[in-house]
């Protein structure tokens, strides 16, 4: 056995906040991070679903927060800092799909939902925790985007546009990391459907800490190929 094989993985001891943690993908990511030795802070808007997560991932700590409300996210950040210190990772998983019906089916209600869930929650969480990631010895931000950004269709125009905006926002955050010469990186995972890819996503999230920041910052990584 070599000395390097005895070294703990870089993810060990990191504090990682999962924004929107109660879906199958969120539970898989939380479980993989806890198993790898990270402290997981799982956030959702529904206490019942967070309890289900805690039943499965017993080491995760959870917070209820409407991540679409910036003042609530500000309070969340204060509570997390007081109880766990600064975070090293932000894995943003709030999403949801609305669409269909061609271009005339792209309703304002659907746009408001997608804008709020896909983009506003990302803007709120990254603004609240950007300094943590910048100052961390290994800050990581990840989102999960969609192949429809490259190949949008009329019936998914609202959705693809919201996801495109989320990708642009994430690249802006990553550019800030690079400009500050911090050890942080922002990564965009891309899927057609997450169903069946939850464990691949979880593994890729844990692996983010194995790579040096500059080699992964502002990369777009397709899952499921
Ligand atoms: N599913 C797919 O096939 C697919 C395809 C392409 C991309 N993606 C993307 O992959 C990511 C994960 O997708 P997913 O389907 O696993 O999850 P999701 O169902 O889109 O949402 C993830 C979590 O967000 C939480 N959430 C919703 N609104 C919230 C709010 N206002 N504040 C706090 N938490 C909130 C939900 O929990 P609560 O309701 O308990 O709060 C849920 O656990 C998303 O960004 C999604 O757009 C998914």
Tell me about this structure.
The protein is 46% helix and 16% strand. The model has no long low-confidence stretch (mean pLDDT 96). The protein has one domain (10-222): Rossmann fold (3-Layer(aba) Sandwich), CATH 3.40.50.720. It is α/β, with parallel strands linked by helices and 225 residues long. The protein starts with 14 loop residues before the first strand and ends with a strand. It has helices at 24-36, 47-56, 70-84, 108-135, 157-179, 198-207, 213-216; strands at 15-19, 39-44, 61-64, 89-92, 140-146, 185-191, 219-222. A seven-stranded parallel beta sheet has the order 3-2-1-4-5-6-7, sandwiched between helices. It contains seven helices and seven strands, in the order E-H-E-H-E-H-E-H-E-H-E-H-H-E. The chain binds NADP nicotinamide-adenine-dinucleotide phosphate.
Give a brief outline of the structure:
This protein has 225 residues and is an alpha/beta fold.
Q: Tell me the number of strands.
A: 7
Q: Approximately how much beta-strand content do the residues carry?
A: 15-25%
Q: What would the average pLDDT be, to the nearest integer? A: 96
Order of helices and strands: EHEHEHEHEHEHHE
Rg, Cα atoms, Å:
17 Å
């Amino acid at each position: 056995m070599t000395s390097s094989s005895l070294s703990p993985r870089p993810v060990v001891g990191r504090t990682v906040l999962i924004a929107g943690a109660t879906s199958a993908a969120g539970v898989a990511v939380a479980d993989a991070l806890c198993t790898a030795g990270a402290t997981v802070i799982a956030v959702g808007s529904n206490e019942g679903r967070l309890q289900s997560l805690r039943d499965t991932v017993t080491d995760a700590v959870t917070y209820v927060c409407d991540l679409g409300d910036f003042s609530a996210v500000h309070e969340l950040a204060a509570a997390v800092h007081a109880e766990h210190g600064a975070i090293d990772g932000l894995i943003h998983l709030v999403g949801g799909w609305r669409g269909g019906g061609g271009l005339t089916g792209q309703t304002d209600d659907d746009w408001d939902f997608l804008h709020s869930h896909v983009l506003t929650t990302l803007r709120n969480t990254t603004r609240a925790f950007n300094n943590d990631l910048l100052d961390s010895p290994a800050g990581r931000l990840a989102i999960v985007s969609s192949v429809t950004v490259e190949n949008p269709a009329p019936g998914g125009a609202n959705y693809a546009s919201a996801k495109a905006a989320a990708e642009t926002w994430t690249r802006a955050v990553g550019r800030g990391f690079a400009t500050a010469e911090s050890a942080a990186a922002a990564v965009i995972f891309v899927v057609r459907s997450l169903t069946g890819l939850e464990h691949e996503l979880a593994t890729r999230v844990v692996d983010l800490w194995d790579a040096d920041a500059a080699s992964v910052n502002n990369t777009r990584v397709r899952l499921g190929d």
